[in-house]
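Much of what follows relies on a compact textual record of a protein's fold. A record is reproduced here so that you can trace the correspondence yourselves:

. . .
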Amino acid sequence: MNIKGLSSFWILVSIMCCACAQHKAPHLDRDSVTLVDAQWQSDSLREGLVLKTHHFRNKTYMASNQYIAYLEVSKAAAQSIAFIHNDSLTTTSKQATHAHAHAAINGTYFDMDKGNPICYLRINGKEIGENTPGKDTIHRKYYQYASLVLDSNNLLSFCIPDSGRFAERDWDEPNVMTAGPMLIISNKILPQRQDRTFVTVRHNRTALGCRADGTIILFTVDGRTKQSEGMTLHEVAKTLHYLGCVNAINLDGGGSTTLWTNKYGIVNHPSDNGRFDKAGERPVSSCILIK
C-alpha cells in the first residue's frame, strides 16, 4: 500500500502480508480447547463465506455464558468487502439489504443523538466522519487508534495511526474506517489500558480479524444478558487469537453489535431491547459489507 507520512511508531499490516506470515498456534489453555473443540453450527452461505455460531452455556467458556457468531470470509471473497454509511441512523440489516449484500456487521462508533460518525470515516474518497477528541487526550479517544483501509484494488489493511487528530487525511486510499483499539497485530495480543470500563467490563463486542492465509473473520459476541455475558477487550483478543487471527481490530459494540446474512437475517442477539432475541437491533451509522 502507498500511505504517505508513516512515522516510526505506525504499524501497517496488509492481508497480502498476512498470507505470508508464520502463524504459531496459541498456547492451548483450557479456554482455547473449549473454543476450538466446541460443536459449532456451521453453514456455507456461498463460496468463500462460512457462518459459524455456538452458545456456550453453564459457564463453560471463560467462566461465563457466551453466544458467539462469526463469518469466515476467504481471501478471494474478502475482495468484495465494502464500507457503507447512511446519513440517518439505520439498522445494519436495512443497510445491508438495501445494498444487496451477502453479509454485514455494524461498523465504527457514532453519535447516537446526531447520527454522525465520531471516528474518521472515508468512503469512495469522500470524507464522512472525523475523530472527536477525548476529555483526557489532545486529539483522539482510546477507540480511535486503529484503522481499516481499503485501497483502490479493494485490498484490506490494518493500521495504527499516529496521535494527530487528522492523520488519516494524508492517506491516499479511498476507503478508511477508524475505530479501535487494535487487539492483535502481527500475531501478538496488544496490552490494553486497565483504567477504562470500556476495556475491562464485559459487553457485547464486534470485531474484525484476519488469519495468516488472508481469511477475514467478522466476529460478534452477545452481551448484557444472563444467556450471554459479553467479553472484556482482552477476552475478545484472546478469542480471536484462538480462532487463528494474526491481526484484529475492535469495532463499535454494545447495543450496536449485529451480524446479518442474507440467508438467515440477524444471526446474533442484539441487546437494545434488553432481551436475548433477534428483535433488539440498534440503528447505526455505518456497516462493513460483503457484497
